[in-house]
Specification:
Blueprint: H1 14-22, E1 34-35, E2 38-39, E3 41-42, H2 53-66, H3 76-96, E4 104-107, H4 110-122, E5 131-135, H5 144-153, E6 156-160, H6 170-176, E7 181-187, H7 199-208, E8 212-216, H8 228-231, E9 235-239, E10 250-254, H9 256-261, E11 272-275, E12 280-282, H10 296-310, H11 314-333, E13 338-341, E14 350-355, H12 360-369, E15 372-373, E16 375-377, H13 382-387, E17 393-397, H14 404-421
Parallel strand pairs: 3-15, 5-6, 5-7, 7-8, 8-9
Antiparallel strand pairs: 1-2, 4-10, 9-10, 11-12, 13-14, 14-17, 16-17
Helix pairs in contact: 1-11, 2-10, 3-10, 11-14, 12-14
């Protein structure tokens, strides 16, 4: 499929949207930095998004005025910290429209959340003859835990193929579904290709076949409105640092009836109701899965990030990112020797590409000299690289605070790369 297959229609005038969003850049202090004497052009948002000052100030205020352990003290600081921590859980519950606070488990990130499901849901239930389906576009975090589970239980992991353009092959997916399939694990949006997967349809088909669904939503929450009730998925995982929040914090959403059946994955303080040497009674949800002192400051910061995003016009943001995607696709396609990897008609604002004769690491280094930050490598998605027979790609990933002029800076820097390596220069 040609690059023209990428969805290009827009709803709003791009210049009007950019004008409306321009002031939001002031919320992000790091965007005013200079790198190697040039204005920072930050196009590595699929790896980590930048934090607005509202989140930074919220975390700082906790450390300055409220720092204490939660759920354990009767003194004022502990009660304040507990209130802030649980208020953050409510902000996150509302952000993803989870039915209950009991279904919002605080983890260290998407990887931790998927591992929790693999161990606590999968290990006691899966065995020889059972099948776990994962797609060919998954991040390692949604492959390795299932591979480990298959090795431990005797279950089999099968791969849902993807098309040349980078979409899940839905016909192949339907053919793979059967009574032996116990789990379907797919990402909402591919971090390596930018593909937006039809996760509602994938979930509905899995449920008809009797399977449970785990969605890796790390790339989705910062770009799309996520409604776990509308998706009807069984588990949904995401990370704070992909949605303008802190690192080291994430969320596992799980349906209450499933979480109730699962045994905890770690033991220690806060996940118990009572302890003796003869008997241990576990706490109820969500504490059952939150052993030890939690990441209090990070959770409060994640709640602030959810509040910040909820206060914006998400439709406007989405349209701006789609306009950036179209502009970047058209602009980069004119770079001699450049080939875009991932041209699904349903994409978010990620453009991964290879450049004839130049290794992505060299591209990234030269771009950095010009103040342009991109990601190079296999993006923790080696099966994707194997699918397209490339060792690595360069990935430019955009957020709502990026601009068309920043895409121009990327384009100009890529022309300099070509010039330095004398690749495909026009006569």
């Amino acid at each position: 499929m040609s690059q023209a297959a990428i969805k290009t229609e827009t709803v709003h005038n791009p210049d009007q949207i950019q004008k409306q969003l321009k002031n939001l850049r002031d919320d992000f202090p790091i965007l005013s930095r200079k790198i190697n004497g040039r204005e920072l052009v930050y196009l590595d948002n699929a790896a980590s998004t930048q934090l607005p000052k509202q989140v930074i100030e919220t975390v700082s205020a906790y450390h300055e005025f409220h720092h204490s352990n939660v759920h354990r003290g009767v003194h004022t600081l502990s009660q304040e910290a507990t209130d802030l921590y649980e208020e953050a859980r409510e902000q996150i519950r509302s952000f993803i429209n989870a039915p209950s606070l009991k279904e919002v488990i605080i983890t260290s990130g998407t990887t931790d959340a998927i591992n929790l499901v693999s161990r606590c849901y999968g290990e006691p239930r899966f065995g020889k003859g059972d099948v776990i389906l994962v797609s060919n576009m998954e991040h390692h975090a949604n492959i390795v835990p299932w591979h480990m589970l298959a090795e431990k239980t005797g279950a089999e992991m099968k791969v849902i193929p993807i098309t040349d353009e980078g979409s899940i092959d839905m016909d192949a997916y339907r053919a793979l579904l059967g009574p032996d399939v116990k789990m379907v694990a797919v990402n909402h949006i591919s971090n390596a290709l930018g593909t937006i997967n039809p996760v509602k349809e994938i979930t509905d088909l899995a449920h008809k076949a009797g399977a449970v669904v785990m969605i890796d939503g790390a790339q989705a929450v910062g770009h799309e409105l996520v409604d776990v009730q509308a998706l009807n998925c069984d588990f949904y995982a995401f990370s704070g640092h992909k949605m303008h929040g802190p690192t080291g914090i994430g969320i596992l959403y799980g349906k209450e009836e499933l979480l109730k059946e699962m045994k905890p994955n770690r033991g220690g303080g806060d996940m118990i109701l009572s302890v003796s040497f003869g008997e241990i009674t576990y706490a109820g949800l969500p504490a059952k899965f939150e052993a030890g002192t939690p990441p209090i400051a990070q959770a409060i910061g994640l709640g602030a990030a959810a509040k910040y995003l909820s206060g914006l016009d998400r439709d406007l943001m989405y349209q701006h990112e789609q306009n950036l995607l179209k502009y970047a696709t058209d602009k980069l396609s004119s770079v001699p020797g450049l080939r875009i990897i991932g041209t699904s008609p349903e994409k978010t604002s990620i453009v991964s590409f290879v450049l004839d004769g130049v290794h992505p690491h060299d591209i990234g280094t030269i771009l950095d000299e010009n103040g342009v930050a991109v990601r190079t490598g296999h993006h923790c998605a080696q099966p994707v690289m194997e699918r397209y027979n490339v060792p690595a790609t360069t990935r430019a990933s955009m957020a709502f605070y990026n601009t068309f002029s920043e895409i121009d800076a990327l384009y100009d820097s890529l022309l300099k790369v070509n010039e330095l390596f004398d690749v495909n220069q026009p006569n």
